[in-house]
Design brief:
Three copies of one chain form a homotrimer.
Chain A lengths: L8 H19 L1 H6 L3 H7 E8 L5 E3 L1 H6 L4 H10 E5 L3 E5 L2 E13 L6 E2 L5 E2 L2 E16 L2 E11 L4 H11 L12
Parallel strand pairs in A: 1-9
Antiparallel strand pairs in A: 1-2, 3-5, 4-5, 5-8, 6-7, 8-9
Chain lengths: 182, 182, 182
């Protein structure tokens, strides 16, 4: 985010406001997943958005995406203790498009571990890290603010798709960065 | 954080500075808890602040709040390896009030797990996630900067109080948002 | 980040841009470590930078630092499922120097735990938290942007070096804060 000499104060403030709005958008993902917030989820994806969680877990359209956490199995996971946990995201903005790369842990209350006491912090079986993965969020500015056009998530298990998401975060912006593709 | 046409440059920059100051405030919580930094903790809560950790774990007043980590049991937990770990927070500012919703892991060195080697990363029994929960921080602007008026924390174990904290982060701001209540 | 009355709009916007550039720098660390991105890592450290991971794990110079993840053992860890996971960092900027204090989890796919199913989230052995520690990043502004001059990392196992890193994040800036030393 080095400053281009040609940028006006207005341009610079707007770029900063974009960045902070995007942080809040990404920060709202775990609360929306962990409460199955159907209408909120629908509102933060564009109408023909794609959610690509790998394999068969793909949904197209913000209605279909927002329905996914309504399944009884997802509700059962919430009841048992579920937490999506977001790390510090890497954000690149280019005009009306942005790409965010972020790590995500999917945590679940451990069903069978021994109860252990931590002094001054009570007794708990603790939580398991069920998965850790990399997200690539492709965002688009809309009249209603920044929204998600495509989210791809891949588990960090040594396989290439997850590593590719991470590598793209480090790549210098390409000359035609307006067209962002995974 | 979409821009209101009526906002001046000064207003907009101040809103951004508020946001970044709040990020640092939230980021200072884990270091203060993990080192039992009594005077620092007292300084970031307003005098009649409330810390509500659920059940009987409640303290009123910044002196009482700052004394909690001084208990021998907390010191024992630090000695054994304790880490509060903060995810990306969601922040909403409204004038001189702000609400932050954030996830927090409470990690403790595992006392009994097998030692496992990770290539190039040594041998360790690892850490347990003792708890994962949602924080609701109600902040207030003071002449000494943003301070905490109320912090509520609930474990994400499928029960309603934690889910309620998360749902409130996704709710559209109410017309009388100046009065923030859990 | 309270505003000094003497600061111009330009100063204030620049301080904000610095902060956001630094967030992206810190956010790029996990992707660079988890993909062993040699040339990227070399580019974000100054030429005579120091990486101090404790004990014998120290490297001097950005070439040596960037070569560390090229070792076969590190590549093996990546293949088995490795994730560096960054919490919300605390940032203090003073002119052309900055200090960042951040928590870092080093996660590895669990090699032996039982497979457990989380409803709607598949079956997995899960991940272990191999280490949790505190980073102190000393940054320097360069003509090519903010770079790392020194990174120290200590495991949060109750020992003083890690606690010292955390305490320094909470200390009021010293009058001669331009000279930052661990």
């Amino acid at each position: 985010m080095r400053t281009d000499a040609a940028k006006t104060i207005e341009d610079r403030i707007r770029a900063i406001e974009d960045r902070l709005e995007i942080y809040n958008l990404i920060a709202s993902h775990p609360p929306s997943a962990d409460t199955a917030a159907q209408s909120y989820i629908q509102s933060i994806f564009i109408e023909d958005a794609v959610l690509d969680l790998g394999g068969a877990k793909t949904a197209t359209g913000n209605r279909a995406i927002a329905e996914m956490p309504q399944r009884p199995a997802h509700q059962e996971a919430i009841k048992a203790g579920l937490a999506h946990f977001a790390g510090l995201p890497h954000v690149t903005i280019d005009g009306d498009r942005a790409v965010v790369t972020s790590y995500l842990q999917i945590l679940a209350a451990h069903p069978t571990a021994d109860e252990i006491e931590v002094p001054a912090h009570g007794v708990s079986r603790g939580y398991r890290i069920h998965r850790v993965g990399a997200n690539r969020w492709e965002l688009q500015r809309t009249p209603q603010g920044w929204k998600i056009k495509r989210r791809a998530y891949r588990t960090l298990d040594g396989s290439e798709p997850a590593l590719d998401i991470l590598r793209q975060a480090l790549a210098p912006p390409s000359p035609d960065a307006k067209t962002v593709n995974v």
